[in-house]
Amino acid sequence: MKKLTMFFLVCILTGYSCMVCSAGSDTLEEDKEATFGIYATYIAGETDYFTAPVKNGESELSLPDGTVIAAGSIPEDGLTLVVYPVTDRDKDAWKWFSACMEGKGRNIVPYEIYFLNKDGDRLLADGVTVSILLPESMETPAAFSLGRDGKVTELASEIVNGKIVFQADGRYYYVLAERTASAPAPDGPDTPESGTGGNDQGTGEGGGVSDGTGTGAGAAGVTGEGGGAAGGTGTAAQGTGARTGDETNVAFWLFVFISSAMVFTAGMIFRHKRASGRKNESY
Description:
seven-stranded antiparallel β-sheet; five-stranded antiparallel β-sheet
């Protein structure tokens, strides 16, 4: 009887150890996936916001690649110029911009341009004159505005001393690109559509990118208010790894199998001993 009890305890401990090891392995795997996702989507120096103070209605800043962006006719409550250059390292955002600009321009250079007031609130660049130093490789440059709804408008622009100059129309994003042959140049300054600026400051529901808080749903995942990393990518980075659709709890069924085997084995041993005892009594 003592041997049977010892055997039963050993089997229980073995089954429990399997469950602990399996659970620990799953947890470690999830931790590895989450850490890898966060590391893979953040590249220091590539997803930074660049800012410059506004003085006398004007502001200018230089990006690490040497691009100079200047703004004039800035409203009095706009105290800080904020520029976020969107690169192909922001994969989701880049795909969204590329899809929106298809058939309108190629070799795109997207920017998020806006201002901050004294309370740190976002002010869209509406009616502001913007000049951006052009890449040398851009042969037929054009400037476009892009809303979170994906609607693209080519802005009237001119080239002055290697810079493209245009008037912002109150949208979130501005894209430099080489105009395609099928896209004629605009005849004059664009008039912002009614409600465009206000809609761009909405909640982010149904838009292509985030709502300025880093949490809005959308394809591009470009961030909004305040300095920080792109919201869409950060959210994706902190998600768990891809699931296969099989939610079976392997550890549970392994424990059930081992327990059943132990009960069956114990029953057979008890039955064998009982039969042996009766046989000895008959003699």
